[in-house]
Amino acid sequence: MGVKIGENCEFFGRLFIDIDVTRPSLISIGNNVVMTKGVTLLTHGYDWCVFRELYGESMGSAKSINIGNNVFIGQHVKLLPGSSIGDNCIIGVGSVVTKHLESNSVYAGNPAKFICTISDYYEKRKASQLEEAIYYAISIMERYKRMPVMDDFGEFFELFLERDESKFGNIQVKHQTRNKFENFMRSKPLFNGFDEFLLHVMHCQKSGS
Question: 4-111 in CATH: which number?
Answer without folding.
Answer: 2.160.10.10
